Amino acid sequence: MSYGRVLETCKVQSLGLINKQRIIQNMEHNTLFKLIYTLILGVAITLFVGVGVQAFYEPPKSPEYPTSQAMYKAEAPTPEEQKAQKQYEVAMSDYSKSRQTYERNVSMVLVGLAVVVIAIGLTFSRQIGFLSDGILLGGLFTLLHSLIRGFAAEDSKFLFVVATVAVATILFLGYRRFSHVGSPTKKKSKK
Asked: Per the confidence metrics, is the pTM higher than 0.70?
């Protein structure tokens, strides 16, 4: 083998090594971007669902504090001011009850939408790959949002139901998504 041929072979091998390193760097780069994209997609889906619920199901309006009431008044309130204060307290109590009902309803709607989003992510997991991871993450974030809204309902039984649905959904998702990873496929033998 001639010296020129050996030199040419070394160049080809070194170029191959450089190309392999570039391929590995590109793969790491793409993996990082896919991870970032997945997180952004999950947050975007959660925001989309949350803003959508807020847009179509408005919260109750808070009563306004009577403007005739002075915060630091030296003299006793007048009978009109006392009446306005009592009306405000009753309105605030009604508002608090309606707000709790609103939060419970929003939590229920969010649980339902989270399950739908997760179902979509699972259904298309083989066809759209890493996009389904973002959709699934969006469903999980929406489920978490639902749980937080359930706390605002101040109903421990309802919160328990929401938490149960959350745990069941997460367990199902984990089983469905990760149970077949790394397991060998069974081949049917012909007899």
From this structure: no
